[in-house]
Design a protein that fits this description.
The structure is a single chain. About 30% of the residues lie in helices and about 30% in strands. It is of the alpha+beta class and about 200 residues long. The protein has a domain at about 25-100 and about 125-165 and about 190-195. The strands form two sheets. It has a six-stranded mixed beta sheet with strand order 1-2-3-4-8-7. It has a two-stranded antiparallel sheet with strand order 5-6. The longest helix is centred in the first third of the chain and has 15 residues, at about 1-15. The chain is globular and about 50 Å long. It starts with a helix and ends with a strand.
Length: about 200
């Protein structure tokens, strides 16, 4: 009987307490597209993160460079983008293969680079994450994003990665080029760290 009362009390206490994850809230800043394929920018004000998200995601939906630039330009030109808690510190892209042109750029850059071992699918003398970070930090990549941030007071200061994956050109979404032999980087979870100009 005593253990039953303790169990009931514990269950009541569990439901009475607020959920630990309840404080996390993403708010939608802008969405371009429709229910079949949209690009969204969401804000987590508490964590000071902006998230660019493809919805519902591959293989039904991918982000084009033009849509990415258009939505970021719209969001970063908003006067209400700054908030009392301070500036946003990062732009979370999610998976690299949501952005086929960017995924292809990384794969092709590695394939053509003598510092990349295509046979083994890894850099000749560098950490895999550092290597891919170097490619994504290239002005040719960051410039495509900073063009949209132009008058916002923000700039990209660094790239952070998780879960870098190596595969073949057949793993690059929407790739129409020659299926080259060997292994290349084809996916990663990507953040651009933001700073103030």
């Amino acid at each position: 009987m005593k253990s039953s009362l303790l169990y009931i009390f514990a269950v009541m206490l569990f439901f009475a307490l607020p959920a630990a994850g309840g404080a996390y809230q993403e708010r939608l800043l802008l969405s371009l597209g429709d229910e079949n394929c949209s690009l969204r920018v969401e804000a987590d004000d508490e964590a000071q993160i902006l998230r660019l998200r493809v919805h519902p995601g591959p293989p039904r939906c991918y982000a084009t460079k033009e849509k990415m630039q258009s939505i970021l330009k719209s969001v970063f030109s908003r006067p209400d983008l700054s908030k009392p808690a301070g500036p946003y510190t990062s732009l979370f892209l999610g998976r690299l293969n949501d952005y086929p042109w960017l995924c292809e750029y990384v794969a092709t850059a590695a394939y053509q680079d003598p510092r990349w071992d295509r046979r083994r699918g890894k850099p000749v003398s560098m950490d895999l994450y550092k290597y891919v970070r170097t490619i994504l930090s290239n002005r040719e990549v960051t410039g495509q994003f900073e063009e949209a941030l132009e008058n916002s007071g923000y700039k990209i200061v660094s790239v952070t990665l998780e879960k870098v994956c190596v595969g073949h050109f057949s793993d690059v979404p929407l790739y129409k080029g020659k299926m080259l032999p060997g292994k290349v980087p084809v996916d990663a979870v990507v953040w651009f760290r933001l700073g103030r100009k």
